[in-house]
């Protein structure tokens, strides 16, 4: 079990009356209170506490030796999101990037304790997701120098991957896909690759599909004959749907995210397969449905002409019209 996750004195996220533990000094705890109202924080009040002497880089008090890396920014974001769930004020979550900017602009040091501060903030993103703004929070932390180093038993990336899989098993596929985009961001940064353009799949809503590309040499599609017919839309490689200025990326198991980057930087080995998606290319995406069918992930794209197209992993009752990621 991870250290620093919760305390016996904390109630679970999203419940009334979250109890805060006084990990820091008096001024620092007052600073966290500013971010625990369930609404957009009063940044002027937070600034006054810093001017009064609150240490923005404070460490937990000596009586909490097992809280290595815990810091004011991670706690502020955590309580800002949790209390926002209770009040129902979406501005609490949507202003999380502003909270990170406030801390960074006032000298918060992601490198403190051999990069533990930054790693703790990255790891704590699993407690503050549910809104796409969390992806911007990750980018701000990474741009400031936060690193995916081992913290306690695992790295932040490993923790996020586990949480994404857990949400998938719990049938919260929308949350799992948001976390999946988060893993792509942290993973790309860890590998020194571009990550600023990676975003939530829903950013492609309202955009027109220009073309479809797929990784690998031809042939990229595979046929499978069954007693009920021939399935021709089976493939194994990553698929890229150009939606005007964004790429909608389909990974195995129908996981998706968007990317604003150059396709040549995303993948150098692609072929144009637009002819296999004639019913999609040229249409605008009106909506998405993400869920499961027969226990396997299903991603459905709904177009402006009222038609829908399924992208899924293989299952026994797959329709011949579906696009299938075969294993």
**CATH structural fold name of the largest domain:** Serine Threonine Protein Phosphatase 5, Tetratricopeptide repeat
In DSSP terms (H or I, runs of 4 or more residues), the helix count works out at 10
Secondary-structure element sequence?
HHHHHHHHHEEEEEEEHEEEEE
Structural classification: alpha+beta
CATH class bucket of the largest domain: Mainly Alpha
Uncertain runs:
1-17
Number of domains: 2
The number of E-state strands comes to 12
Rough outline: elongated
Largest sheet: 6 strands, antiparallel
N-to-C terminal Cα separation, in Å? 33 Å
Helix-residue proportion: 25-40%
Give the spatial strand order of the biggest sheet: 1-7-6-5-2-8
């Amino acid at each position: 079990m991870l250290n620093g996750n919760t305390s016996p004195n904390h109630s679970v996220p999203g419940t009334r009356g979250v109890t805060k533990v006084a990990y820091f000094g008096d001024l620092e705890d007052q600073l966290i209170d500013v971010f625990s109202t369930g609404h957009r924080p009063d940044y002027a009040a937070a600034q006054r506490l810093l001017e009064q002497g609150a240490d923005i880089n404070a460490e937990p008090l000596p009586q909490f030796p097992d809280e290595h890396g815990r810091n004011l920014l991670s706690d502020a974001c955590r309580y800002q999101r949790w209390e926002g769930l209770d009040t129902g004020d979406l501005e609490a979550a949507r202003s999380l990037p502003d909270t990170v900017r406030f801390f960074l602009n006032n000298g918060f040091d992601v490198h403190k304790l051999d990069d533990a501060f930054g790693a703790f903030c990255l790891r704590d993103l699993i407690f503050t997701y549910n809104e796409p703004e969390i992806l911007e929070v990750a980018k701000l932390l990474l741009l400031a120098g936060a690193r995916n180093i081992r913290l306690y038993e695992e790295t932040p990336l490993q923790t996020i991957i586990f949480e994404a899989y857990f949400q998938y098993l719990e049938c919260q596929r929308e949350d799992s896909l948001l976390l999946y985009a988060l893993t792509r961001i942290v993973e790309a940064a860890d590998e020194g690759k571009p990550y600023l353009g990676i975003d939530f799949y829903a950013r492609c809503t309202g955009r027109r599909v220009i073309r479809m590309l797929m990784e690998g040499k031809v042939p990229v599609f595979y046929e499978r004959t069954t007693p009920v017919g021939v399935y021709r839309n089976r493939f194994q490689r990553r698929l890229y749907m150009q939606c005007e200025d964004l790429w909608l990326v389909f990974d195995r198991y129908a996981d998706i995210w968007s990317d604003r980057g150059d396709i040549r930087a995303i993948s150098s080995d692609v072929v144009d397969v637009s002819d296999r998606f004639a019913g999609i290319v040229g249409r605008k995406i009106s909506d998405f449905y993400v869920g499961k069918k027969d226990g396997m992930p299903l991603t459905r794209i709904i177009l402006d002409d009222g038609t829908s197209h399924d992208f899924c992993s293989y299952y026994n009752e797959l329709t011949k019209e579906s696009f299938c990621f075969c294993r």
